[in-house]
Amino acid sequence: MTIALGSTLAKILLLKEVSVAQGVAGLALLVGLQYLVTWLAVRSRSVSGLVKAQPRLLLFSGEFRVDA
């Protein structure tokens, strides 16, 4: 999320093709969608399961775990 916001802000500041209104709308959309997904994840286990990953062990005793 931080990278997306930073990239959008950089485009607003550096590109003449992107107006300030378009940039602000893009930033507002990103923040709004992040808020919506977070709000849904807190209130719904199924949404939380979709957006939150469980840690997986990829390497064990020097060997890659193919099942992970």
What does this structure look like?
With 68 residues, the protein is mainly alpha-helical. The chain has helices spanning 2-14, 20-43, 45-51; strands at residues 59-60, 63-64. β1 (59-60) and β2 (63-64) form a beta hairpin. The two termini are 25 Å apart. The model has no long low-confidence stretch (mean pLDDT 90).
Summarize it:
The protein has helices at 2-14, 20-43, 45-51, and strands at 59-60, 63-64.
Poorly predicted segments? none
Q: Sheet bearing the most strands, described?
A: 2 strands, antiparallel
Number of helices: 3
SS class:
mainly alpha
Q: Estimate what percentage of residues fall within beta strands.
A: 5-15%
Radius of gyration: 18 Å
The beta-strand count equals 2
What is the chain-wise order of helices and strands? HHHEE
Give the overall pLDDT as a whole number: 90
Helices and strands, with pairings:
Layout (H helix, E strand, L loop, with lengths): L1 H13 L5 H24 L1 H7 L7 E2 L2 E2 L4
Antiparallel strand pairs: 1-2
Question: Descriptors for this entry?
Answer:
68 residues, mainly alpha, two-stranded antiparallel ribbon, flat
